[in-house]
Design brief:
101 residues, mainly alpha
Length: 101
């Protein structure tokens, strides 16, 4: 079943929101430098080399874990911001790959 353009409105809104979040978070410095620093710290903590794109994959795993959790009433958590974060980390990983890191 093919989705019509109007059925993608929520998805387009999420992508726009993710873009806004990424722009807002750019105040933390350059993506390459930031994720290199995080990968260095992760490597030091775990004793295993962690690349910048692996940091993105790890953060996606954290968000997926949060989404799979149950709330106090036993319902699945449905935090929309976690889905937006997953989009953001995926976009950052693509940028890092394009930059050769």
């Amino acid at each position: 079943m093919m989705m019509s353009h109007s059925n993608l409105e929520t998805a387009f809104h999420a992508l726009d929101h993710c873009k806004d979040v990424l722009l807002e978070r750019s105040k933390y410095g350059e993506v390459d430098e930031n994720f290199k620093q995080i990968s260095d710290m992760g490597s030091m903590i775990t004793g295993h080399k962690m690349t910048e794109t692996q940091v993105c994959a790890f953060m996606i795993a954290v968000k997926l874990s949060r989404l799979s959790a149950k709330d106090g009433l036993g319902k699945n958590c449905t935090h929309k911001d976690s889905f937006v974060d997953i989009i953001g980390y995926s976009a950052i990983a693509l940028e890092l790959l394009d930059n050769g890191t």
